[in-house]
Amino acid sequence: MKKLIIAGFAIATLGLTSCSEDDDMPIEQLATCTDGIQNGNETGIDCGGACAPCDGGENGTAPQDEDLSGLLIEDFTLTNDIIWELNGKFVVGDGATLTIEPGTIIKGQEGTGSLASALIVARGGRIMAEGTADEPIIFTSINDNIDLGEKQGSNLDENDRGLWGGVLILGNAPSSFEGDSEESQIEGIPADDDFGRFGGNDPDDDSGVFKYVSIRHGGALIGSGNEINGLTLGGVGAGTLIDHVEVVGNVDDGIEWFGGTVNTSNVVVFAGGDDGLDIDMAYSGTITNALAIQGAESDHALEIDGPEGTLEGAFTIQDLSIIGDANAPSGAIADLRDGAMGAFNNVYVRGFNDIQNVEIDDAASAANYSDGSLSFSAWEIVLPEGVESVSSIFEDTTESTDFSNDATTFATAIEKDQETVGADLSVFGWTYASFRGAF
Q1: Backbone angles phi, psi at 194, to 5 degrees
Q2: Residue 152 reports pLDDT greater than 90
Q3: Which of 122, 265, 143 is nearest to 198 (CA)?
Q4: Which of 125, 210, 296, 323 is deepest in the core (most CB within 10 A)?
Q5: Which pLDDT tens digit goes with each residue over 192-237?
Q6: Residues sharing a CB contact under 8 Å with residue 183, sequence separation 6 or more, in sequence order
Q7: Separation of alpha carbons 100 and 212, rounded Å
C-alpha cells in the first residue's frame, strides 16, 4: 500500500503515547508530480494542482486506499469512492469536523498496545457520519475482503475478533468520577495521551452525528485485560445523535457509555467477547430500541455500574431484546453492581440456560432497587429448560431484597415468538447481524 498524503488534510504526526507541542501546526506538503503519491495541491496521484490535468489516464488514476493517522485539525471528508485505512490512532481534534459519506468503508490496520488502530473523536471535535440503510458506513479490519459498494465481505464472520481497535467519541458532558474530578481518561487509551480525556459540565454537548454505522471485528488489546470497545461513548452530550449503530464480533464490550447524557437509538450488538451493552459513571441518557445477541464467547448482555463519585445519574433502557447463547460459559443476562441506577422497560429475553440470570451484585445496587432508583417493568422471558418460574431468573446475591419474588410482578413467562415487548427488529434489516440470520 502506498501511504498517501492528502492535499488540504492538515495533520500532525501523532505519537501513540503523547501529543507533541506541534500538534496544532498543519504540515504543508509540496506537489512533486512524479513520486507515485498524492501530495501538495495534487487532486490525484501525480496530477492536478501544479502538476497537470487529471484526465483519468495514467496520471489521475483514483487512489485505491488512503492512510489515516495523526491529529486532524481542519475539517475533512472521507468519500465513498475509495477504501480508507486507519494506521494507528486517527484523532479528530478540538475544532475539527470529520465528515464521512454514506457507503464509506474504513479498514483498521492490525496492531496491539500503542499500535492499535482506532478512530478517536476528541473533546471539541465533531464527527458527521451519516450513512443510510442502503449505504451504511462500515468500519472493519484490513483483513476483511469487503470491497467498494459491498455491505459485507466473504472471508470473515462474527467470530473474527480483535483484528483492529474501535471507535471512540469523547465529549464534555457530566460524568461521575472517583474523587469528583470533572474529567478522566477513557478506557482503551494510554493514560499519557491527552486526546483520551473526557467529561465536563455541558450536558448538551454536541459531538456530531453517528448514524447507520457498522463496526466489525475490533477490540485490539492495549494492555493486560484492557481492550478497546467497539463503540466507546465517553462524556458524550445530548446534542449528539447516535442512531442505527451495529457492533459485530468485538473482543471487549459492544457499546459502552461512560457517563454523559447522549440518547442512543436502534442499536445492535452481536457476538462480542465481553459485555453487550455496558453502562458506567452515571450515564443518564435513554437507550431506545436495542438488540443484544450473545455469542459463544460473550459475557453479560448487560453490565451496569453506578456512579464513581457523588454525582448521580440514572439511565433508561426502553424496548430491548436480548438473545442468549446457552453454550456461552460466561454468558448471563445482566450484572448490576457498584450502585447501579436506572430503569429497564419493555424487555424481551430468550435463548439463555438455567444458570444465566439477572443478578444484583452489591449492597448499593440492592438499596437502589429497594428505593426505586433501579427499576424493572414489562419483561417477557422464554424460560430455559428446567426453569419453572421467572423468579428463578432474578437473583439478589446480597439477599437483602425481595428481587426474586418481585419478579412475578414485572416479568412474564412466554413462548418463543410470542413477545409483545422488546425491540422492533424490522428496522435492523440493514445490519450484518441480519445478513447472518442472527435474529
Answers
A1: -60, -25
A2: yes
A3: 122
A4: 210
A5: 888 999 999 999 999 999 999 999 999 998 866 678 999 999 999 9
A6: 177, 197, 198, 199, 200, 235
A7: 11
Mean pLDDT of 287-306: 98
User: CA–CA separation, 29 vs 200, rounded Å?
Assistant: 36
| Residue 147 CB coordination number (10 Å) | 9
Helix (H, G, I), strand (E, B) or coil at 168: strand
Written as one letter, the residue type at 45 is I
- Cell readout for 83 is 477504501
* DSSP letter assigned to residue 114: G
SS3 label, residue 355: coil
> Is the CB of residue 253 less than 8 Å from the CB of residue 278?
yes
Q: How far apart are the first and last CA of the chain?
A: 38
- 375: closest CA among 289, 316, 303, 292? 316
Q: Is 417 helix (H, G, I), strand (E, B) or coil?
A: coil
Selection from 78, 98, 70, 69 nearest residue 207 by Cα: 98
3-state secondary structure of 423: coil
Query: Which of the two residues, 115 and 76, has the higher pLDDT score?
Result: 76
CB-based contact 212:102 (threshold 8 Å): yes
Report pLDDT digits (tens) over 65-88: 689 999 999 999 999 999 999 999
Q: Which three cell numbers stand for residue 169?
A: 467519541
User: Is the distance from CB of 403 to CB of 376 less than 8 angstroms?
Assistant: no
Residues in the chain: 439
- Which one, of 407, 396, 347, 334, lies nearest residue 367 by Cα? 396
Read off the pLDDT of each residue in 161-182 and give the average, rounded to a whole number. Answer: 97
Which amino acid makes up residue 66?
Answer: E
- DSSP string across 170-222: E--S----GGG-S-EEPTTS-TT-GGGEE--S-TT---EEEEEEEEES---EE
Q: Do 374 and 345 contact (CB within 8 A), yes or no?
A: no
8 A C-beta contact, residue 268 and residue 162: no
C-alpha cell belonging to residue 89:
490512532
Rounded to whole angstroms, the Cα distance separating 54 from 47 reads: 5
Task: Characterize the bridge pairing of strands 208-216 and 315-323.
Answer: unpaired
Residue 403: all three cell numbers together:
428481587
E strands present in 62-159: 65-72, 76-78, 83-92, 97-100, 105-108, 118-121, 126-130, 137-141
